User: Fold this.
Amino acid sequence: MKTQSIVAALVIPFVATLAHAGDDAMLSEARNVAMSLPPKLLASLQEEIKKSGPEGAIPVCKDMAPKMAGKLFQETGWKVKRVSLKPRNEARAIPDDWEKAALEDFDRRAAAGEPPAQLEKGETVGSEYRYVKALPVQPLCLNCHGPVDQLSPAVKSVLGEHYPNDRATGYSVGQIRGAISVRKPL
Ligand code: HEC
Assistant:
């Protein structure tokens, strides 16, 4: 073996391992950022629903969620958004091609029996690291994302006012409502 190929044989796997370790570090960073949002939202939703009913909790999903996402970006450098195959807010929740493919894959895997709360995908795409995590429907979500005939009149009226093209109803518990999507330049 020539010296050159010996060096290559030693160095290439080493570089490959480094690249892999970099991806693993990005994955756990992305996962931490993405997972920090839903528990806070859930707690605020619970609190507001108790205090002022589901229609009173709408600002949590409408205003507080994007505000928290903006704050996360400032603190971590990760861009955070929520996307869905059936978006309520057309201005911010329509998935791009990469997100759409991931969401479709999540739906297939959930239908095949994988626990929806565990569905995630993270990878380097071009010059960014991208990560999505599925958001499964829990009983509380049905107040605003359940079948239309089961929404309260007050919720229906507020949703109708803000989201004339709302597609985010008709869900049942365990389905995937959408995903948290985070991205950061490498
Ligand atoms: C009190 C009503 C309410 C409850 C309860 C609620 N949501 Fe929402 N949800 C909304 C509203 C309003 C929006 C639109 C937000 C916006 O304008 O960006 C929304 C948007 C979303 C989005 C962003 C994608 C889209 O369709 O615009 C996701 C994902 C989502 N909700 C998931 C959930 C999950 C999961 C739960 C249960 C844990 C839940 N929501 C409970 C009202 C609610």
User: Anything to note?
Assistant: The longest strand covers residues 176-185.
